[in-house]
Amino acid sequence: MGNAFRASVYTPQDLSSLRSVQTLWQVLVDPLISPSRFDSVERARSEFSPQSFGAACDLYSAEGVLFVRGRNAKFKAMFSYLSDRLAKWTFWWDLAAMKGDQGGRWLQWLYGLCIQLPPYYGFACSVDEYDAKHTVVETSGSGAMTQAVGVSAADFRRFLPGVYWLTIFGADLVNHFGAKLQSLPDAHSISISSDQTVVLLDSPVVPEAMGERLRVEADLRSLLGAKYFFDRTNVDVEYEPVPGLARALGETSR
User: Fold this and answer.
1) Number of domains in the chain
2) Which of 127, 164, 168, 216 has the most CB atoms at less than 10 Å from its CB?
C-alpha cells in the first residue's frame, strides 16, 4: 500500500438515511472515480449505478458497512458505522494520481464531499505517512500482527487522530481553534465552506524525509494544543477532547 493515498473523515452522517446515501452517490458519480461496484463486503459484487443508492442504504442499515470501488486510480472506499453519532469513511486511491493538476482535482472532489456531507474532522496523506503515525507491528511465536493505534471510535471521543499533510476541521473544531488555523507555519488554510477549514502543508504529498514531516506536524499540534491530538511518540500526554466536539458526540458530561 506504499503507493496509495488515503483520506478519512469522521462524520455524523448516517448512511441508513436514504437522503444521505443519495447525496453520497451523487458525489461518487464523478468521472474522476468512475464508480463500478458496491457491496457490504470488500470485493464489492453489486453493479454501481446512479439509481442504486436505495440498495446501498439497505445494505448499510443491515450490516453497518459499505464498500465502493471505482474504475479509475484504484479507487476504493469503506463507509463504517462506529457508534451513535459517529461513522468513519475512508478512501484510497493511487498515490500517482496526486501529481500535478490531477492531484488538485482529487482534492476538489474531497472538498466537495465535505461540503455536501459535512464531517467533524478529516485527514489525507500518503499511506506511508499514515503508517508512520498509526501502524504498529507486533511479533509473536505465531507471526506478525499489524494493528492501527489512535484511530478507533473510542479514541476519537478522547482526542483527534493528528495533524497530517491535509487536515480537515469541521464546524465544532473551527469554532474551538479559531484564528490559530489561519496562521500556522509551514502550512496554509483553505476555507471550503463557511464553517469548515482545511490546513494543507506547504510541502509535497510525499516528503523527502518522513522524520522532517513528522517534526513539522508535531510543531503544528503543539501550536494548536498537543493535548487534543494523538501522538504515539509521547506517552506522557494527558489527552482532552475538544469540548464542542465532545458535545456534538453526546458527551454531555464534559
Assistant:
1) 2
2) 168
Cα angle 193, 86, 137 (rounded to 5 degrees) comes to 105
57-65 — which CB contacts under 8 Å span 24+ positions? 57/15, 57/16, 57/17, 57/18, 57/21, 60/15, 60/16, 60/21, 61/16, 65/40
Summarize the confidence of residues 69-88 as an average pLDDT: 97
> Cell numbers of 67, please?
464498500
Contact (CB, 8 A) for 188 and 202:
yes
- Whether 99 and 162 map to the same domain: the answer is no
Cell of 102: 490531477
Domain that holds residue 71: 1-119
In 108-129, which positions are buried (b, 16+ CB within 10 angstroms) versus exposed (e)? ebbbebbeebbbbbbbbbbbbb
144-175: pLDDT as tens digits? 678 899 999 999 999 999 999 999 999 999 99
Residues 112 and 136 in one domain: no
- Same domain (yes/no): 78, 15: yes
Are 153 and 38 spatial neighbours (Cβ–Cβ below 8 Å)?
no
